[in-house]
Design a protein that fits this description.
- With about 170 residues, the chain is α/β, with parallel strands linked by helices.
- Helices cover about 40% and strands about 20% of the residues.
- The chain contains 7 helices and 6 strands, in the order βααβαβαβαββαα.
- Strands 2-1-3-6-5-4 form a 6-stranded mixed β-sheet, with helices on both faces.
- A hairpin with an 8-residue loop joins strand 5 and strand 6.
- The longest helix has 14 residues.
- The radius of gyration is 15 Å and the shape is globular.
- The two termini are about 25 Å apart.
């Protein structure tokens, strides 16, 4: 019996895209890559701000989405607050994965060291599966590079969240 595709959501965090002033190319790229990897993908677009990110992540987790990727808001501009909005949703951070994403990004550009993105998990609860959440920068190239790192690891993480063996 074939498996149901795993639900994934791409949340783009951008004031300009949310206002309709810029096309969401990063979110479109992430969705394309996730669909190609076999995920059932939905998308959301929110303005910058910790509260907006927190609300969008909480809605995704409550809807049973298992893999959530944010794009944008990981830098140091005054409105970049994606990690702050993410931290309160996570049950456990995975600092090694965030470090790996930065290390891979720095191989392409020294600006990769600036990203403050988090990676972590939300534990399963009755009526709600566990989820993996990853913050990626807003540039399309950074999203593509980040997904190259994450996609091979996410099935194992999701299995672990469901109680799978090592």
């Amino acid at each position: 019996m074939p498996h149901e595709p795993i639900a994934a959501r791409v949340i783009t965090v951008s004031n300009r895209s949310a206002a309709g002033l810029r096309e969401d190319t990063s979110g479109a790229l992430a969705a394309e890559r996730l669909e190609a990897a076999g995920y059932r993908v939905s998308r959301a677009l929110v303005a910058d701000g910790a509260e907006n990110v927190h609300a969008a992540l909480t809605a995704a987790v409550d809807a049973g989405v298992r893999f959530i990727v944010t794009s944008g808001g990981t830098g140091v501009t005054p409105t970049d607050r994606t990690p702050e909005g993410t931290r309160g949703v996570l049950d456990r951070e995975l600092p090694g994965l965030a470090e790996l994403l930065r290390a891979e990004a720095v191989r392409k550009t020294p600006f990769g060291a600036i990203t403050r993105g988090l990676v972590g998990v939300v534990d399963a609860r009755p009526g709600r599966p566990g989820a993996v959440i990853a913050n990626l920068p807003g540039k399309p190239a950074a999203v593509a590079e980040g997904l190259e790192v994450l996609l091979p690891l996410v099935p194992h993480l999701l299995d672990q969240l469901a109680g799978g063996d090592h």
